[in-house]
Fold LLM class flavin-dependent oxidoreductase.
Amino acid sequence: MPTRTVEYGVFLPVSSGGWIPSTTTPELDGSYAYNLEVTRLAERLGFDFTLSQAVWRGYAGPSHHFEVNLESLTTTAGLAAATERIGVWSTCNTATFHPAVLAKMIATADQISGGRTGLNIVAGGNRASETQMGLGASLSNPDKYRRAREWVTVCKLLWTEDGVDFDGEFFTLKDCQSKPKPAAGPPPMICAAVSDIGLRFTAEMLDGCLFEGTSRESMIEVGTRAKRIAEEVGSPLKTYCVFMVIPGETDADAQRRLDLYNAGRDTETMARMFAEHGNAAWDKAEFEARRAEWEKTTAVSTGTLCGSADTIAEQLADIIEAGRIDGAVFIMPDFIGDLAALGEAILPQLARHGLPGAALALD
């Protein structure tokens, strides 16, 4: 069977509630102690990297979803000092940190980790998180990608040049200096994108795109479209797909878990998330008028693979191959028990499908 390595990562639960807006999921407190435990377990199990998101504002609702959230860059620096092999990737919104400040922070984290850092940049993100700090209110999405293009350019210059002069639309630097440099040059940089404009920006400027889907078909479509756009611009772009995994001893056991989480869905939080990521203001009256609609919506949706270890491994292998996917980034309800099942029962099966993890392939 032909073999190609795949990067397997864990999207850390640095925000309370994890990734499912529900009152019936395992309790995740968003603490550093819990995320350190998860990261050390991921390292022992042979995962290639962890990734933490950048969240600045919760969604209220009965589940108090995301109301507690760690800052990504400092969390990653702590995890880097407490681990030895696993990659430690952080997230930064281009609105919240000046590129000269971020470049210095990443170069510092590079020393702490011994070259294991990576960076996920957010060009747009949750508008409510930005506007609460007086940021980004006047910028459209195309404006934000223009700003992100300058932001990335400045970071890369500061990581490679002795002094940087830059006169752009959004940033101006005069003989700006930044030492130390990352030991091996600019670290891997990715961006969450599904639109053509976002994928083209990512292919032209970065190393990888991060995306999610709500079905097998949507994940394959985005993965193959990203590769097509990358080929058009001559980029060796990597694709990283986010998968929600809900394992069980049997398919029926896993389905019972899924049904339980959906039964506790926090419709108020879900409506607020939908509005804010659509750049609209939360409207309580509108939510109440449409509550019956929201009650039909499931809490668990993002690329969900639910079943026994055999079932999930087969589904993953199918989507990774058909979607030309280079990396799988996992979220789950229980980041200890489910992560152990993923590392001990599912990743070995993926290796037998000809898709071993990059770290495990080196062992």
